[in-house]
């Protein structure tokens, strides 16, 4: 399943995200989300780790930011509070849908909480 996911992601990547398995472990993926245009994250490059268990796709992977992320749905350790990674998980989700959900969630979630005409976050890159 993960090999076909990798192939699909490389052949038809969604805009603003990328990911691939680590060299020696198909269960551990490195991913990047590029900050969406029109958000405080614009022009930022944010790295993530995705760890799959043997129960995937029946159980969601563990996803966390490696890059420092200031967002109300990202914990200090980089783990992400996102419904599809918890109680709304579906075996139909793949790496593309996970990364896209995180990226889209920045805009819709954060914009409702903060007034970004006042706040512009610094972009942190590793």
UniProtKB/TrEMBL annotation:
- The entry's keywords: ATP-binding, Nucleotide-binding, Transferase, Ubl conjugation pathway
A molecular function (GO) term: transferase activity
Basic and acidic residues: which segments have biased composition? 1-11
Concerning Pfam families, the annotation shows: UQ_con (PF00179)
Q: Where is this region: Disordered?
A: 1-21
**InterPro entries, A to Z:** Ub_conjugating_enzyme, UBC, UBQ-conjugating_AS, UBQ-conjugating_enzyme/RWD
User: In what residue span(s) does the UBC core domain sit?
Assistant: 1-126
Top-rank taxon: Eukaryota
Q: Where is the active site?
A: 81 (glycyl thioester intermediate)
Family annotation (PROSITE patterns): UBC_1, UBC_2
Its family?
Answer: Belongs to the ubiquitin-conjugating enzyme family.
For this entry, the protein name equals UBC core domain-containing protein
Task: From the UniProt record, report the name of the gene that encodes this protein.
Answer: ube2b
